[in-house]
Design a protein that fits this description.
By secondary structure, the protein is of the alpha+beta class. It contains 14 helices and 13 strands. A hairpin with a 2-residue loop joins strand 7 (about 250-255) and strand 8. It is globular.
Length: about 375
Amino acid sequence: MMEFKEELELLLNNFIITKENNRDAYYKIKSKVKKLREFATTKLGCDIIVNSSLIKLEKIPSQIDNTFRIEEFDNQKDYILFVLLIMFLEDKAKEEQFIISYLTTFINNTLATISEKNVKIDFNDFSTRQSLIDVLKYATKLGIIKQLDGNDNLFKESADNEVLYENTGISHYIIRQFKDDIFSYTKPADFLNTTDTEEILNKKRYYTYRTLLYYPVFHYTNFDGEIYNYFINYRNRVISDLDELLDGNLLIFNNMALLTTTEKVNRLSFPNSRKVISDIVLLVNNYLANEVMTDNFIVFNRFELEQLFIKIHSENSKYFSKEYREMKPNKFFEVITGYMQSFKLLEVEDDIYRFSPVVYLISGNYPKDIEENDSYEQLSLEEV
């Protein structure tokens, strides 16, 4: 099965692959799509969409959390505007052009029909215009639209400034297709259902492989007993599959499993040598590794953890990039803990913060022989 390792990694690492933006990857995957689809169907319970413009693995999460967040988005408003953009493009033909004021008018008219909305969308507000531009830039990156004319930075300054875009037709494949009527859904978990989850063995297999391939850490006790039992009973088969598929090594300990590979499998992999925040989290893990576990977690209340983060920043900020060096303590705390939550390194409930024992395995520190007068842009951490 190693014969399609590279192609599987491309599907896992990318939300969507368009022929126009990544022609080589598109044809590489398309040449092996039959075997890839067999794997995706039998192990993940997901389909692979293939047409003349794009290829996409329909990644269905195994639980509701922020792992599948969009890195470019900062708040709930960004996600709302993104969905409204997809709705706006629904009736647009391929290569049809539109100006940004058409989009803002559609958004205002659509929201006016909703009696209850928790987020205020007002394009007279700078932050709202900033959010819309962030969404449009992300849509351009995905290949959903093309920017043809105008300066989007000028729109941020004033809603009177126009920008011209073109619809590529790819927006129809962004939102997952559901076979059921989603208006009957009453809770977020309903969106996790697949077509044959009545078959319990399939459900257990799907959830196991999805979680190991899509998520940084698999806390299998978070799932129902059937899925837990499947993982325990079939772990040797799972380990063999992941070794053959991705040359991966599955570590199992303390009711959790962690897939490590020689190459990046998930586009949101940790640690990530290209991200400053990843190095800082390795450093935080190093401090946490000196703490004692309680019930398989390292536990802090908010005040205790805030004090630890102040200490970490005070002792190490000279090594950080300017952004993190000058960051206010409360912002530093929220950014770092949020990032750790997204990688399952941290669970938060009320004001209790529980860190996964994974921090003992993945941590780092700055070199001890650095002199005070050295220049620090962003120093790489030495893994412990």
